[in-house]
Amino acid sequence: IMTEITLDDIIQIAKNAKLDSEVDFDKFDPDKKILEQGIDSLDFTKLLFEVEDTFQITIPDEDFDEKKWDTLNKIVEKVNLLR
To answer: Which of 46, 57, 67, 69 is deepest in the core (most CB within 10 A)?
Structure first.
């Protein structure tokens, strides 16, 4: 049985993702848009690829929509659905 992915899991991945944006994920508001908290769209895409690799999931192209994944809490929710 797989355990649920948590916000802490996603934050840890983000910290390890070697993003170009200098941000402190511990200070992120998990319900606020990631792109409004100092991450650029390239790093946002890198983060999603890192999430895919870590959890061995594939985000379907039609689902690879910034609006569906734009907060840390949405990423947690979507990853749990895809697993």
So the answer is: 69
Q: In this structure, are residues 5 and 75 in contact, taking their beta carbons and an 8 Å threshold?
A: no
Which structure tokens are listed for 63?
């689902």
- Claim: this prediction has a pTM higher than 0.85: yes
The whole-angstrom separation of Cα 5 and Cα 21 is 24
- As a dihedral over the C-alpha atoms of residue 80, residue 65, residue 59, residue 77, rounded to 10 degrees, the angle is 0
Q: Are 11 and 72 in contact, with CB atoms under 8 Å apart?
A: yes
Summarised one tens digit per residue, pLDDT across range 32-83 is 999 999 999 999 999 999 999 999 999 988 887 778 899 999 999 999 999 8
Q: Are 80 and 5 in contact (CB under 8 A)?
A: yes
Alpha-carbon gap, residue 20 to 8, rounded angstroms: 21
**What does the pLDDT read at residue 75?**
96
